[in-house]
Specification:
9 helices, alpha/beta, five-stranded parallel β-sheet, 521 residues
């Protein structure tokens, strides 16, 4: 009879099998393997942490190296936007900045100091002095000019701005830029090569910079319409860029047709009606929308678009009569084009050169965001915008807050959807005023909020009030009104009840378009 094996298990307890020597040996081997794995994992984790720290240190070193290295900035154009960009670059980066401006003209000031520009000598601005005050230097206007300065006053002010802030040595005049192209990326954005020729000695020049601000303006390449049989017309024709004064023999005592209903057309119409025998005002699209009570003058007739032209006559839309015309002035604006920009940058023009593509918020190059184009939008307060845009671009770069391409593209698509929702055509994308929209104050506020800049509220109010004056009175009569900005607020020195009431309605309702009743008065 076999006896039971002794056991330590009490009644009710689960019996645990005893480990054999083989089991213990296998367990020991397994424990050692697990231990080795933990050690290996720890070493790999330690190495990974060390690699990450080295990468962070390398990135920090590169960042410190970039911060220690002077930022090189190239600016194309020495007009208003260019000299503003120059001063703002120096204010943003201080001594840690190498900046130069390139301009093919012989003087600073762009079109305001260029006899071949769109500005004619007798022109008074349609923008008040409070919107022409650049940071740090007040614009003093002669008493007889009210708040709308003359062309000579503007040109002198810009020269004074350059001398006051000692900017002359950084401006290279008579240097024509022929190519701006991106070069290698050093980890903090693509650099740019600016090349061209010195017009004084015909020698070439080249400069490699970290940031580029294109400030060459948009009043350069003339735009002209296409009209049936226009090549048959044998009378005088010229673009508004060539207009000098109403004493021109092609105008005085002649029948003149002004084609174009925007700023230059209305301004020149007001000037030539004093000497021309008859003035016809025509155009293919809405321009400056004037009230029904606007006084064009006894010898000015508003017409529809031109549908046909002959040797010395034109026929207007909806009419059978052929109208004799001695001279045609094409007040049709300019093409937005930047031929010196490399196609690689993908900053292109479309919609018959009305629109500039490839820019985030009409400012920053989306493909290579180390480049900005300043003041491409229409119907703005361009001097205010130049200061905001340059500060915006420079501040975002200095703080490393430029959005990525995806965010830029989404922003563009959102804006295009909004434009479509209000019935605005694509060619109006870079316009700040249209039949159904009024967006410039919102555009400026958006740039300021993104960059953390103070919003120029008083200037935005002055801009809105000035636009209301233009719609009510046209360019000539607005100069009878007087207003200014004092202590950061808009002040009215001389005005009438109508524009003041409309302004208050506009401000209080925060409108984004001009209601139809604005034009009923």
């Amino acid at each position: 009879m076999v006896q039971d094996q002794p056991t330590d298990v009490k009644e009710g307890q689960e019996q645990v099998p005893r480990e054999t020597g083989q089991d213990v040996e296998q367990k020991t081997v397994k424990d050692k393997a697990d231990e080795q794995k933990l050690i290996q994992d720890g070493k790999e984790e330690q190495k990974q942490n060390q690699d990450e720290k080295e990468e962070e240190k390398t990135a920090d070193d590169n960042k410190d190296e970039q911060q220690d290295k002077p930022v090189k900035i190239g600016i194309i154009g020495a007009g208003v936007s260019g000299i503003v960009a120059l001063r703002q670059s120096l204010l943003t980066y201080g001594d840690n900045c190498e900046v130069h401006v390139f301009d093919r003209q012989g003087e600073v000031g762009g079109m305001w100091n260029n006899p071949l520009s769109a500005v004619f000598p007798d022109l008074r601005t349609n923008t008040p002095a409070c919107l022409l005050n650049l940071d740090g230097l007040d614009f003093a206007v002669k008493e007889e000019n009210g708040v709308y300065p003359s062309q000579q006053e503007v040109g002198s002010y810009l020269k004074k701005y350059v001398s006051t802030f000692q900017l002359e040595n950084r401006i290279r005049l008579r240097h024509e830029v022929e190519l701006v192209e991106p070069v290698e990326d050093h980890g903090y954005g693509h650099q740019w090569r600016i090349s061209g020729r010195n017009l004084d000695n015909q020698g070439s020049f080249e400069s490699v910079v970290d940031l580029v601000l294109v400030c060459s303006g948009k009043e350069e390449v003339e735009r002209k319409p296409v009209i049936p049989n226009m090549n048959v017309y044998a009378g005088n024709t010229f673009h508004s860029k060539e207009y000098v004064d109403n004493k021109d023999e092609r105008i005085a005592e002649k029948s003149v047709l002004i084609y174009g209903l925007a700023s230059s057309g209305i301004e020149i119409m007001e000037d030539i009606k004093r000497s021309a025998s008859m003035v016809f005002l025509s155009g293919c699209r809405h321009g400056i929308e004037l009230t029904s009570s606007y006084d064009y003058g006894e010898n000015v007739i508003r017409k529809g678009d031109i549908v046909e032209m002959g040797e010395k006559w034109v026929r207007f839309y909806g009419e059978k009569d052929l109208i004799h015309v001695d001279t045609i002035i094409w007040c049709t604006g300019y093409k937005k084009t930047y031929p010196f920009l490399s196609s690689v940058a993908e900053v292109t023009s479309s919609e018959d050169f009305h629109v500039v593509n490839g820019l985030y918020k009409q400012t920053v190059c989306m493909k290579y965001p180390t480049l900005a184009v300043i003041n491409i939008t229409d119907f703005t307060a361009p001097w205010v915008q130049a200061e905001v845009q340059t500060r915006y671009f420079l501040k975002l770069h200095k703080e490393g807050r430029i959005p990525d391409f995806k965010e830029m593209k989404e922003n563009e698509e959102t804006y295009l959807r909004w434009m479509k929702s209000v019935g605005a055509p694509l060619r109006k994308r870079d316009c700040c005023i249209g039949v159904n929209f009024f967006v410039w104050p919102g555009f400026i506020k958006d740039l300021c909020k993104e960059a953390g800049l103070p919003i120029p509220k008083a200037q935005l109010s002055a801009y809105t009030y000035n636009i209301i004056l233009i719609t009510q009175y046209g360019f000539k009569q607005i100069r009878n009104h007087k207003f200014s900005i004092e202590n950061g607020k808009l002040r009215f020195q001389r005005t009438t009840w109508k524009p003041w009431i409309l302004f208050k309605i506009f401000q209080n309702l925060r409108l984004r378009c001009f209601p139809k009743f604005f034009y009923w008065f």
